Amino acid sequence: MHVKELFKKLRIAAYVTAVLTIALGAVLIAWPMEVTGLICRILGAILVIMGAVYLFGYFVEGRGILAVTGGLIFLLLGVWIFITPESIASLVPIVIGVILLVHSLRDFQMASEAKQSGSERWTVLFLLALLNSVFGVVCICDSFGVVTVAVRLLGLVLVYDGISNMIIVHHTIQAVRHAAEKILPIDVEAHVVEQDD
User: Fold this and answer.
1) What is the DSSP string of 91-141?
2) Helix 3-30 vs helix 32-61: angle between axes, to the nearest 10 degrees?
3) pLDDT tens-digit map of 119-154
4) How far from the centroid of its chain's Cα atoms is residue 132's Cα?
5) For residues 45 and 78, is the Cβ–Cβ distance under 8 A?
6) In angstroms, rounded to a whole number, what is the distance separating the alpha carbons of residues 137 and 97?
7) What angle is formed at CA 132 by the lines to CA 128 and CA 135, rounded to 5 degrees?
């Protein structure tokens, strides 16, 4: 394959990938909760299918009671997620918020111990623990807002990734092409130089 054709195919593939990445990022920025809901519904549908497979195995192949129990759990959980996807989307920030609050309580205790030990930086430790607890409260009280912000940040990252890839590919191909042009053989005419005896 000719070098120019190879560069052209690589450039087209890279640009198509970058455009798709930018488009996906734009969708996440514009409709964060809709995309999250769609992902949760897909997860719910997968769980429903898994539950149906377990139940089918019990009734057809005579599997044990665990197949019925697992099938019913997957089926009910899948239906619940599919019907109310926002509930699952909001659970993740709540769990993270609880973890942050638990950590902040431990941080407050350690800041207090640092103060009792005579540390001059205990106020900084206290402020860090306070900030940690604030983040935890925000995650619990405004879980939908946290999900929206997180998905939009992911969208921004994807848009940046797509744009940066296009720039990198463009400049790299230009640099490689320029370097290749420098090492191409140059046609010159040969002349016989006659020397006088």
Assistant:
1) HHHHHHHHHHHHHHHHHHHHHHHHHHTT-TTHHHHHHHHHHHHHHHHHHHH
2) 90
3) 888 889 999 999 989 998 998 888 888 888 988 998
4) 23
5) yes
6) 6
7) 140
Q: Which residues contact 27 (CB under 8 A, 6 or more apart)?
A: 35, 155
The pLDDT tens digits for 54-111 are 888 777 766 667 677 888 888 898 999 888 887 777 887 888 888 888 888 888 888 8
- What is the identity of the amino acid at 135? F
Residue 157 in tokens: 């990252």
Two structure tokens written together for 106? 């431990």
Phi/psi for 77 (5° steps) reads -65, -40
Tokens (6 digits) for 197:
């005896």
